[in-house]
Design brief:
The chain is built from ten helices and eight strands. The chain is α/β, with parallel strands linked by helices. The protein has an eight-stranded mixed beta sheet with strand order 3-2-1-4-5-6-7-8, sandwiched between helices. The two termini are about 20 Å apart.
């Protein structure tokens, strides 16, 4: 695949569009959608918009009590699944298979963690790579046949402009030799999310399944739970009165590009692209740019090698 696809299109939406506005343009009646972590932040807004547009939405939840409260009043279903733990992903995937045996139209890999202290799961895997990438890879591997049942199915992987901070490290993905740095680890994981979508699309596009990655924008959510205000002020995210930067989006706006990637007909022949602000991001931005698709997430060879490594780590292969 050449990178001709990674070019902006004439989208009717923009960075201030909301998920509800985008969803209104889509006919989702009869569609089955899975949203990981779709009970908080932008995931909740995506869940709400997709459900309001007629989709059957199933939300994977790590904390059932919190999810019940957040989703109260919404006609959605939940399945307990903790992405950081392979056994939980396996159990959750089995339950999802039981309730979606006739097929899945859209899988949105929304859940994630950001810039956490060094933590490891029960297998010793570094938490950001384990949660943001490997957990979603394992979930897709166990649901791939159900996505292939539905012509035109899509997978949307939540990446971030933080991909500019670091590419993936296939040799020391688990920080066994290198010193752990939380933002580098986050950048690696977000690069992996974009590369996952690129390779998934290459593998399955001819079978009718496409994938996209998304930068939702800067939004104040629980994703920042491991950061203190002093650090976020230093980044310029908040001012001295703890007010967010004017370029920050609301959660309703932050969920819009996810819904756009999941539904827009403008992406029908643009599988594998990285999106932002309800459009395809421009390719090859300056190295210090806070927008655009940096070259390493468009590296098809790297995407293939990451896919193979992910199969080896998880012991799983998609159909």
């Amino acid at each position: 695949m050449t990178d001709d696809r990674q070019q902006p299109v004439d989208s009717p939406f923009h960075m201030r569009s909301t998920a509800a506005e985008v969803a209104k343009a889509a006919d989702l009646a009869g569609k089955t959608v899975i949203v990981t972590g779709g009970y908080s932040g932008i995931g909740l807004e995506a869940t709400r918009a997709l459900s309001d547009a007629g989709a059957r939405v199933i939300v994977t939840v790590r904390t059932p009590d919190k999810a019940r409260a957040a989703l109260d009043g919404l006609p959605v279903e939940t399945v307990t699944l903790d992405l950081i733990e392979p056994d939980s992903v396996k159990t959750g995937a089995q339950e999802l298979r039981e309730v979606t045996s006739d097929g899945i139209d859209i899988l949105i890999n929304n859940a994630g963690i950001m810039a956490t202290p060094l933590r490891r799961n029960s297998k010793g895997w570094e938490s950001q790579f384990a949660t943001n990438h490997l957990g979603h890879f394992a979930l897709f591997a166990q649901l791939s046949d159900l996505l292939l049942k539905r012509p035109g199915a899509r997978v949307v992987a939540l990446s971030s402009i933080a991909h500019r901070r670091a590419g993936v490290d296939l040799e020391d993905w688990n920080y066994q030799t290198g010193e752990y740095e939380k933002w580098e680890a986050y950048g690696r994981a977000k690069s992996a999310n974009a590369l996952f979508a690129l390779e998934l699309n290459r593998c399955y596009e001819d079978q009718g399944l496409k994938a996209y990655s998304v930068h939702p924008g800067g939004i104040a959510t629980d994703l920042q739970r491991d950061l203190d205000m002093e650090e976020m002020r230093a980044f310029g995210w908040y001012d001295e009165n703890d007010q967010p930067h004017p370029m920050f989006k609301t959660v309703e706006q932050g969920a819009a590009t996810t819904v756009w990637a999941a539904t827009s007909p403008l992406l029908a022949d643009r599988g594998g692209v990285y999106c932002e602000d309800c459009n395809i991001a421009a390719p090859n931005p300056p190295a210090d740019a806070y927008s655009g698709a940096h070259p390493h997430i468009r590296d098809a060879d790297l995407a293939q090698r990451l896919w193979t490594l992910s199969e080896e780590i998880t012991g799983l292969k998609a159909v």
